[in-house]
């Protein structure tokens, strides 16, 4: 199992037997890649061998096992609920920060694209004006050579 962050940093790299569980915490927002590699040969798979993969991906406050936390920390039901609400608020805050980050990236991309479009249209206009000037001079010299002007 290899987990790679959006900045191409390896967050997790481990080998497991026939079964395994893994968890990781990332501090980088964005899309992470999870790569699973099998050590069995391709021929074994084609010969009727089966490879079964079950992924149960949990993100945010859903990864916490609250009954286990309550038992470990000896929390009352009210304290446990307060902790759940704090975790939810923290998750909402993280989501808002991620959306701000995405909005900033989108705005930078849009501004860059708008700037390129502006320069492209200016270049096209200059090329058209230069082509028009060249055509007028060429036609003028042509008519003077034919003595029509």
TrEMBL record:
Keyword Endoplasmic reticulum tagged: yes
UniProt KW Zinc keyword: no
Keywords for this protein: Endoplasmic reticulum, Membrane, Signal, Transmembrane, Transmembrane helix
Record-linked Pfam families: EMP24_GP25L (PF01105)
Topology relative to the membrane: Single-pass type I membrane protein
TM segment ranges: 117-136
Localization annotation: Endoplasmic reticulum membrane; Membrane
InterPro entries xref list: Emp24-like (IPR015720), GOLD_dom (IPR009038)
GO cellular component, one term: endoplasmic reticulum membrane
Domain GOLD as annotated: residue spans: 1-59
Family: Belongs to the EMP24/GP25L family.
Designated name of the protein: TMED4 protein
Organism: Drymodes brunneopygia
Gene (name only): Tmed4
């Amino acid at each position: 199992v290899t987990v790679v962050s959006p900045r191409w940093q390896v967050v997790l790299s481990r080998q497991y037997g026939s079964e395994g569980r893994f968890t990781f915490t990332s501090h980088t927002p964005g899309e992470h890649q999870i790569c699973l590699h099998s050590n069995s040969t391709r021929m074994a798979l084609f010969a009727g061998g089966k490879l079964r993969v079950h992924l149960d991906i949990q993100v945010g406050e859903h990864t916490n096992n609250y009954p286990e936390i309550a038992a470990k920390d000896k929390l009352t039901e009210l304290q446990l609920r307060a902790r759940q609400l704090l975790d939810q608020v923290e998750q909402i805050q993280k989501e808002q920060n991620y959306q701000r980050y995405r909005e900033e990236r989108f705005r930078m991309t849009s501004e860059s694209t708008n700037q390129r479009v502006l320069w492209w249209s200016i270049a096209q206009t200059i090329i058209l004006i230069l082509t028009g000037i060249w055509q007028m001079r060429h036609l003028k010299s042509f008519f003077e050579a034919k003595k029509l002007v």
